[in-house]
Design a protein that fits this description.
Layout (H helix, E strand, L loop, with lengths): L8 E6 L1 E2 L11 E2 L2 H17 L8 E6 L7 H11 L8 E6 L6 H9 L4 E7 L3 H6 L6 H14 L3 E8 L6 H12 L5 E6 L7 H5 L6 H17 L3 E4 L2 E3 L6 H7 L5 E3 L4 E4 L2 E5 L3 H6 L4 E5 L2 H12 L6 E2 H8 L3 H4 L1 H10 L2 E4 L2 E4 L7 H8 L1
Parallel strand pairs: 1-4, 1-11, 2-3, 4-5, 5-6, 6-7, 7-8
Antiparallel strand pairs: 8-10, 9-10, 12-13, 13-14, 15-17, 16-17
Helix pairs in contact: 1-2, 2-3
The protein binds iron/sulfur cluster (SF4).
The site of iron/sulfur cluster (SF4) has 11 residues, from loops.
């Protein structure tokens, strides 16, 4: 693969959290200082063994909880990444509110972090407790102040809805509370209960589909009224503050995936790094590689692109794959266009507004 074709985006997964939320099935383990020290050593090996271009445009450190590391470990992590941050336009770190302090905020700023994604979830203290979250709404406010004082003002809040026992009135309060912190970006995800989580094991159920759809409809109506443009199925931004890194995924571009539990996509292959910390410490390059056929890539381009409100560019699709969208998806696309599920406007093909929340069934029709 020529250097020019190498990814311009990098995702790094920090596989530790200070505690485990009851709904979470991400790859993580409870933070232990010595594990994190050994992980940093393995990470150093992985970074030096991989040929990563130095003129990256976006970097995203997620998890887990990157700020579960101590200040000294965070400093070490960011120092390892310094060689790759010189050209970054966007450098995001995920933060759990209760794990940030002034020292860590200053370290993030000193290493060029210019965006933070904060786990807000809900302002309802009772629900936070039920979810196993260790912070309060006040902690989120403190976290926002610490970041702003350190000079990091491009802030995104992650909210969850369709939580057990959540009401429409509760969701409205959450949105008001989130907006009172004046974030530049909001991500809102409905709760999905996986069997292997505490919620799944305890038999919690999400809200009924109708309430969930009403909540989504409310979110999509109210946030644009408050100046947040919906640009993706679950993401809203003050214009100009859309997540450049996440746009790499939605535009189906390549990206490096670094550390245990991360996935990446390079040179027509997707790879999943080992999710086991033990295996990662032994061999930080251990991964499962899945070659992607042209058909896989065409479908995944559409699957990711239709998440965007703007949809996908049909000329870009044709340039990329040497076949038009309508030929690639034969009669199926035409049928969805006839039914008004897909809408073509100029060069763009997008999901119709009233079918947006049903995207998965639209995609299965296309398949
Ligand atoms: S902090 Fe995030 S990654 Fe960690 S357990 Fe909670 S939801 Fe999962």
């Amino acid at each position: 693969m020529s250097r020019e074709n190498k990814p311009r985006a990098l995702y790094l997964h920090v596989p530790f959290c200070r505690s485990i939320c009851f709904y979470c099935d991400f790859t993580h383990r409870v933070y232990r200082g010595e594990d994190a020290d050994r992980w940093l050593k393995a990470l150093e090996k992985e970074l030096s063994a991989k040929e990563i271009r130095r003129d990256l445009t976006t970097m995203y450190i997620g998890g887990g909880t990157p700020t579960s590391l101590t200040a000294a470990q965070l400093e070490r992590l960011l120092t390892l990444l310094d060689p790759y941050t010189g050209s970054l336009q966007e450098f995001t770190v995920e933060i759990n509110p209760e794990t940030l302090d002034e020292e860590k905020a200053a370290i993030l700023k000193a290493h060029g972090v210019n965006r933070a994604s904060i786990g807000f979830q809900t302002a309802d203290e009772k629900l936070l407790k039920m979810m196993g979250r260790r912070h309060s709404f006040k902690d989120v406010g403190n976290c926002v102040s610490l970041l702003k004082d350190a000079g990091i003002g491009n802030l995104s809040l992650d909210l969850m809805y369709s939580l057990p026992e959540q009401t429409m009135a509760g969701l409205k309060k959450d949105i008001e509370a989130a907006l009172s912190l004046a974030p530049k970006h909001l991500s809102l995800y409905s709760l999905i209960i996986e069997d292997n989580t505490v919620f799944g094991k305890k038999g919690y159920t999400p809200l009924d589909e109708e309430t969930e759809a009403d909540m989504y409809e409310y979110i999509c109506r109210v946030l644009p009224e408050k100046g947040y443009r919906q640009y993706e199925i679950s993401n809203f931004a003050v214009p100009g503050y859309e997540s450049r890194h996440n746009l790499v995924y939605w535009h189906y571009e390549d990206f490096y995936g670094i550390s245990a539990g991360a996935s990446g996509k390079e040179d027509h292959c997707r790879y999943d790094n080992t999710a086991s910390l033990k295996e990662y410490l032994q061999d930080p390059l251990k991964k499962e590689i899945t070659p992607l056929s042209k058909e896989d890539e065409m479908f995944e381009t559409v699957m990711m692109g239709l998440r965007l409100k703007a949809g996908i560019s049909m000329s870009a699709f044709q340039d990329r794959y040497g076949i038009s969208f309508s030929e690639a998806f034969s009669g199926k696309a035409a049928a969805l266009l006839r039914k008004g599920v897909l809408v073509a406007e100029g060069d763009m093909l997008r999901c119709a507004g009233d079918h947006y929340h049903l995207l998965n069934s639209v995609l299965s029709d296309l398949l």
